[in-house]
Structure formats: C-alpha cells, structure tokens
Amino acid sequence: MLFIISLLMFLSVSLFAYFGVPLIVKTYVDVNKTRAKKFVSEMDRSLSHDDVRRIAPMYFLAPLVLGGVGFYFAPLDFQMVGILGGVALGFVLPRFYSGLLVGKRRDLFNNQLVDSLMIMSSSFRGGLSLIQSMEAVAEEMPEPIRQEFSIVLGENKMGVTMDEALNRLYRRMPSPSMQQMISAILLARETGGNLPVIFSRIVQNIRERKKVEESLAVLTVQGKIQALVMSGLPVGFFFMVNSTNPGYFQTMTNSDMGRMLLMICLGLWVVGTFLIIKISSFKDI
C-alpha cells in the first residue's frame, strides 16, 4: 500500500514537472513579455532609449528576485505570504520606477523650456520661421528638450501636421507652460500675432510660477520633516528598546500572532508615511 501511494505521488510530481512547470514558466514569460512590450511602446517617446533598455528587463527579473527575497526574510509560517508579497511588489516596482524617471525627465524639460523660448523668440526676431526656430532649439539645447523638438520636426517631415505634432508633444510633456507655448503658436498660425512678445510674456509667467513653487516648497518643508520624523520613530524605538532589553520583543517575533501583528504594523507604517508625504506636497495644475 505504501508502495502504491509513493508511486502515485511520484507520478503526480512527474506529471506536474513535465506539464505544469513549463506551462507556468510559459505563462509567466508571455505575461511579462506583453508588459515589457507595452512599456516600451508607451515609454519610447517619454524616456531615453538607454532608460527603456535598462528598465525593460526589470519586468522579468523583479517578480522573481523580490519573490525570493520575500521567501528568505518572511517568518517560517508566512513564507507563502512573503513570496506573494514579493511577486506583487515586483510587478508594481518597474512601473513605479519608470514613473519616477518620466517625472524627472519632465521636470528637466520644463526647466529647459525658458531657454528654448528665448532662443525661439530671438529666431523670430531674426526673421526665421517656426520650423527654423525649432531646429535652432534642437541644435543648441541639451537633452531632453533636444530629443522632444527633434521628434516634433521629424513627425512634421513625415507628413504629420504641426498642430498634431505639438499636441503630441504636450501629451508627452504636459505642463501649464507647455500648454501656453503651444496655444500661442497655434493661435499665431491661425490669426496672426507677435510671437516674440508673446514668448517673452510666457517666459515671465514661467519665472513667476517658479517663484511661487519655490515658496510653496519652503512652506511644506515642515510637513516633509514631520513625515521623516514620524516614519523614523517606530524604527528608532524598536532598535533602542531592543538594544537595552533584547527580550522585550521576543513575544512579537517568536509567536505567529506577534509576527502577523508586526506585518500589519509594517503595512500601516508604509501607508501612514505615504499619506503624510502626500498631504505635505502640492500638485502642479
């Protein structure tokens, strides 16, 4: 009887290894390949090619690596929870990281927009056309604004109207300053207008907006410091008490209920820190 049970278990494991494991691996590869292709198609115009090539493999590796980390560091009775949590974090982390890079690229683009508008204004005063002034920006300015204006010029040469190319630029790099620039260009193309004067006013508005944003950043420093202090207090309290009385937290670490409560506290700590940071920050509209 024991031999039959062992044989059935062996056959079950063999069938799972032969049919189940390849199916799971194939599904995992297909899902992440689809996610990677979607990421490349979405971010190809929002990030540099080097950033896209660096982030794309993360869609394959992050769930595996973080799942292994969760399995290694999770308590013995919660290893499956650690694996699932690590895999879930691995699915979210590449998207979150790419969002940070896109935000950084957009901030850099907006910081370069003032100089670009001044170059275009000087080009207009010199008698150059809109296309020629944008070519001057693409030649003289650094990345990322060089790439973005080059994309607009390339799309226009391929038959896309300038209105549509500029609207696509705004969808890639949305900001109030960019909206003002595109609106001024489109209105001037339809109804006429003195673009050098309009661009000078836009530059002045951008500089005033930056002053307001800097003032808001100073006013929200207190909230950000509070977020850091409140985030560090539980960690500092744990290490301080554990160094003076090592057995104080043994009830939490040696029992299943204690470990579960620690995981709940960790989740609440992350949520609380995130909410404090969101409350103490402002969003540009």
List keywords for this structure.
285 residues, mainly alpha, Receptor-associated Protein, 3 domains, 12 helices, elongated
Using only C-alpha atoms, the radius of gyration works out to 28 Å
CATH topology-level fold name of the largest domain:
Receptor-associated Protein
Low-confidence stretches: none
Structural class: mainly alpha
What's the domain count?
Answer: 3
SSE pattern, N- to C-terminal:
HHHHHHHHHHHH
Q: What's the level 1 CATH class of the largest domain?
A: Mainly Alpha
CATH architecture of the largest domain: Up-down Bundle
The overall pLDDT, averaged over residues, is: 75
E-strand count? 0
Textual characterization of the structure:
The longest helix is centred in the middle third of the chain and has 47 residues. The chain is mainly alpha-helical and 285 residues long. Helix 4 crosses helix 5 and helix 4 runs antiparallel to helix 9. The chain folds into three domains: 90 residues; 110 residues, Receptor-associated Protein, CATH 1.20.81; 60 residues, no CATH class. It contains twelve helices and no strands. It is elongated.
